[in-house]
């Protein structure tokens, strides 16, 4: 499978995996990896590092926006096999260890199977290892203020709602926001295109997900790199406002369902 790597800004790359994205920030051959895709995306992940002139050994840290399997898939592989630190918000660290799960349940997914795009998404997620149990043995919390001392100098901003420890990463020097699942530009289960929240069944707390859009609106930038969907070019502030307006006008609420058997994640 061809590795889909998009150069979006100086030293900044967006990579499309199976219905999900990860981001590579580079300084020379050193790199910061933000999210890792599904477990089944590992060959693409390694290929994307090679495509930007880096390697697993050169990754200084794996930063995780949130610990769903479509973002965490190869984190433990890199930590155990290459000694790469895996870092998250302190509230997300136990989630990465699988002390608990913030996720949509199988039952909620099945109740929404009639919705356009849900069944094809489930099939793709299952094939990519979406239900595999891959905890990170020793995740680490990153500082919650100021830029991290890593390639790209990403600034973590806690944006709970999708999960309790969800974090976006602001790159003020390049005007980029890595938004994870706090603000996406598309998803196979959504009929919308452009900046939006994920459908409500994927949110741990919808009210907090909406409130986190206020935090995103306060960040300067003109490039949005989401966890799902294509790169979005334009004001990050306006993107957050659009997502809020759509969510408030829509009022869709197919349920949260964050319990039960592990399921594919958004």
Automatic annotation (TrEMBL):
Entries under Gene3D superfamilies matching the protein: Ribonuclease Z/Hydroxyacylglutathione hydrolase-like
Lineage: Bacteria, Bacillati, Actinomycetota, Actinomycetes, Kitasatosporales
Metallo-beta-lactamase domain: residues covered: 19-228
Lineage: superkingdom: Bacteria
Descriptive protein name: MBL fold metallo-hydrolase
SMART domains assigned: Lactamase_B
């Amino acid at each position: 499978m061809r590795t889909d790597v998009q150069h979006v800004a100086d030293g900044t790359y967006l990579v499309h995996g199976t219905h999900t994205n990860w981001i590579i920030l580079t300084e020379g051959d050193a790199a910061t990896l933000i999210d890792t895709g599904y477990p089944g995306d590992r060959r693409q992940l390694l290929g994307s590092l090679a495509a930007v002139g880096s390697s697993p050994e050169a990754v200084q840290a794996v930063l995780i926006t949130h610990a769903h399997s479509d973002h965490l898939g190869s984190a433990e592989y890199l930590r155990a096999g290459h000694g790469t630190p895996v870092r998250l918000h302190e509230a997300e660290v136990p989630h990465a260890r699988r002390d608990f799960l913030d996720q949509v349940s199988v039952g909620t997914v099945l109740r929404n199977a009639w919705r356009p795009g849900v069944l094809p998404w489930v099939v793709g997620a299952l094939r990519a290892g979406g239900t595999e149990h891959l905890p990170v043995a020793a995740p680490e919390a990153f500082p919650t203020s100021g830029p991290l001392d890593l390639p790209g100098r990403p600034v973590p901003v806690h944006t709970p709602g999708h999960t309790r420890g969800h974090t976006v990463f602001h790159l003020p020097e390049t005007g980029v926001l890595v938004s994870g699942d706090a603000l996406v530009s598309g998803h196979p289960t959504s009929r919308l295109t452009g900046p939006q929240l994920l459908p409500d069944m994927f949110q741990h707390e919808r009210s907090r997900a909406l409130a986190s859009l206020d935090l995103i609106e306060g960040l300067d930038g003109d490039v949005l790199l989401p966890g799902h969907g294509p790169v979005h070019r334009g004001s990050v502030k306006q993107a957050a406002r659009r997502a809020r307006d759509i969510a408030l006008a829509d009022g869709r609420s197919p349920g949260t369902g964050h319990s039960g058997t592990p399921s594919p994640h958004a």
